[in-house]
Amino acid sequence: MQQDADAMRRAVEALRRGEAIGLPTETVYGLAANAWDEAACRRIFAIKGRPATNPLIVHVADRSRLGEGAEIPASGPVRERLEQVADLWPGPLTLILPKGQNVPSIVTAGRPTVAIRIPAHPVALELLACLPFPLAAPSANRSTAVSPTSAADVREELGDRIDVILDGGPCRYGLESTIVSLVDPDGPLLLRHGALSAEFLANRWRMPLSLLLRSGAIRPSSEGHAPPSDVPAAKSGVVGAAAPGQMRLHYAPRTPVWLADDPRLPSERRGRWGRIRFREATSSGGMPVDADRTYAETRVLSHDGDPVEIAASLYATLRELDHRMLEGIVVDTCAEAGIGRAVMDRLRRASANHGAS
Ligand code: AMP
Ligand code: MG
Hey, whose CA ends up nearest to atom 4 of ligand 1? Predict the structure, then answer.
């Protein structure tokens, strides 16, 4: 979607004044502010109600400006790992690198490392090219809520708190970036599943998938939303022991979300319920399956269960059903492979109020 020149000018002016704005990216919409301006970044945390322990991702305009966020040149092994994925930028890949001096510690929650990426959205890239500083931008939702995938979603979440929201149309991936640390001595370490699959990245670094996904004991997060300590990492769906801010309850609408295979799902549902299917479920006659008649609202995310299509519309559908006064939303599960890993990660967190899986 073409962004009109007037909106772009207002965004640049607001950012130069130290304000935060709504920004389209190819993953989800961001709440962006000058990453070099400590007060502006503090505003991001306040607007979102985000715990100060949860660091922000820094967005830069292009490879030549990576040094605005990270310490460049990086050391030998880090530089090598970076080169192996350099062509994936702009794109939905966030890398953890040593922090550059200009980035205030509020951005990294006091860490010596910084999360950094180049977004692949024409509006974000045009804006970044107009600015003399990088942008810190977490998703433009209130903390723990569903990430916004359209400008209207941002207005709904934060319209009363920010003045400028750039409209770049619906997000192509509809799911956050994949985060990989490049500073671990044992090689690239996946910290968050996302729009780029772990399988694809492991192949790029020519490493076994299990090594990219390795994780030690889960460290309880200081937000108090840590996964229970008796749940092994693989089972809880939580990857990356070193990833801060990966809260157990996250990406959640106000309406309770249930995984369709949760044994605790009430068999007698009272009131109006919603159902999100990942593929068309029809009887032999092509009619909706009987079970769906018991739901007040049913949505099908992909005719034939394509995981990319499912990911692209999942958040928008959760958000839409959240407005339908439902007692609960029952969502399909999918195979934990490719982008399905990210889909299941988000759904586990969205349904974490039931202590499911
Ligand atoms: P988002 O809320 O999508 O902006 O995601 C930001 C996430 O990036 C955080 O919740 C962390 O999990 C991760 N992150 C940011 N900075 C760092 C860092 N320095 N080290 C490890 N993970 C980070
Ligand atoms: Mg977020």
Answer: 138
**Pocket around ligand 1 at a 6 A CB cut-off:** 54-57, 96, 108, 111, 113-115, 138-139, 176, 179, 191-192, 243-246
pLDDT at position 289 is: 66
Q: Are 43 and 18 in contact (CB under 8 A)?
A: yes
Separation of 28 CA from ligand 2 center, angstroms?
9
Tens of pLDDT, residue by residue over 64-103, are: 999 999 999 888 999 999 999 999 999 999 999 999 999 9
Low-confidence ranges of the chain (pLDDT < 50): 216-241, 355-357
pTM of the model: 0.90
Residue of 47, 56, 58 best suited for mutating to test ligand 1, as the one with most atoms within 8 Å of CB: 56
Strands 328-331 vs 257-259: parallel, antiparallel or unpaired:
parallel
Report CA(2)–ligand 2 centroid distance (Å): 25
Cα 97 to ligand 1 centroid, rounded to whole Å: 12
Question: From atom 10 of ligand 1, which residue's Cα is the shortest distance away?
Answer: 245
